[in-house]
């Protein structure tokens, strides 16, 4: 088609698309900028936990009444199935050693991104998908290396992580994998409601889990965070986000994430499969990087 | 609009997924505007990077009076203008426009353009900046002539004139290209 024929239409249709590597670079820097801009960014779950245990002093009568309430609650809990509180999910995530999170939007069958984080191995691996093209990026903190592989290619490119990139990767390992809606529990808006979702309203079915919802109102919008928490470990296996306007009856689905908790052995095997045998961790000399990057200052020997 | 309000609210609480959501939603539009104006995909990506990182930095304190899209596009325009001002960006002559240049290398091309888009971008680059900016703002940023006039500090009739002359010139350039 001659673009001059319908010029305005052609210009409207004209679109430039970013590449995966550009997206990663911009988002990494933007995440770091956002973290730095947040007031009291260093406060984490610890602050939330302190908020939970701190309570105002009460008069003797009120204290006595509280004892009765606590006793009733304990009795009720003893008779009911185990109930998971949001705080327990935070605690479980803080203790989790390895997590793999797959992000989906709408009804896509394939995840748009997968993030594998290992606190014990100190690595973060991303798999990004665009159409048929998939890219793996491994951030290896102990070796200060980043490895990249495109699924369609056998070539693995390796570069040294900058100090800034190491800090960001360490931050990604420390946080709670973006599986919870707030940086900490204390940040949940007043009036937020947490409750169990009866099976018939759960929509999805995830074995061995119980579904809960956190709902809150903010700036005229209602938000709903649904979590399918493992009945034994309290760890989220699936989370879903919904929202709606005050005037609307139905919540609108936004996104979902599916989490799994692989073992260290499984992760090592996966990395070996994608990036080949791990020469860098052997501590032996001889690592020379990939031919493309050799001589460009990105293939220094690992420590 | 509703979705943007929700994303902004989450963003103000430091939600990285919300930041990713804003980026995924507007990055291509922002990059297209920057590329149309600069005719250099490497420079356009730098502008997108700078604008988005700056947006992330100010997000917790952001109070928008215009739509999020307009805010981001205006930021791109401002950053491009800064670039022209400080670097005295190269003015493209009629006979020297080639494919959009890029510093990107490797297996993945950074900014992806079809052949038709290359042709169009090349023709856009031959327009005087003020005509190019007016066309891009109107057609790619969906800004009304009135808004462009306010933004550029000129009258609406001047904006309309620039738009008309720009399109006419663009049509001539494209017809000429196809006859080659």
Molecular structure report:
- The complex is a heterodimer of chains A (303) and B (180).
- Chain A is of the alpha+beta class.
- Chain A has 2 domains: 59-95 and 184-259, no CATH class; 96-178 and 263-296, no CATH class.
- Chain A is 29% helix and 28% strand.
- Chain A contains 7 helices and 11 strands.
- Chain A has helices at residues 7-13, 20-37, 45-53, 60-79, 86-95, 163-174, 264-275; strands spanning 98-105, 113-118, 123-130, 133-140, 145-150, 156-160, 193-196, 209-218, 221-230, 236-245, 252-260.
- In chain A, strands 6-5-4-3-2-1-11-10-9-8-7 form an 11-stranded antiparallel sheet, with helices on both faces.
- The termini of chain A are far apart.
- Residues 41-80 and 280-303 of chain A have low confidence and may be disordered.
- With 180 residues, chain B is mostly helical.
- Chain B has 2 domains: 1-90, Rna Polymerase Sigma Factor, Chain: A, CATH 1.10.1740; 113-180, Winged helix-like DNA-binding domain superfamily/Winged helix DNA-binding domain (Arc Repressor Mutant, subunit A).
- Helices cover 70% and strands 0% of the residues of chain B.
- Chain B has 8 helices and no strands.
- Chain B has helices at residues 2-12, 16-38, 41-58, 68-87, 115-125, 129-139, 145-152, 156-179.
- Chain B is globular, with a radius of gyration of 17 Å.
- Chain B starts with a helix and ends with a helix.
- The model of chain B is unreliable at 89-98 and 101-112 (pLDDT under 50).
- The interface between A and B is large, with 54 and 61 residues.
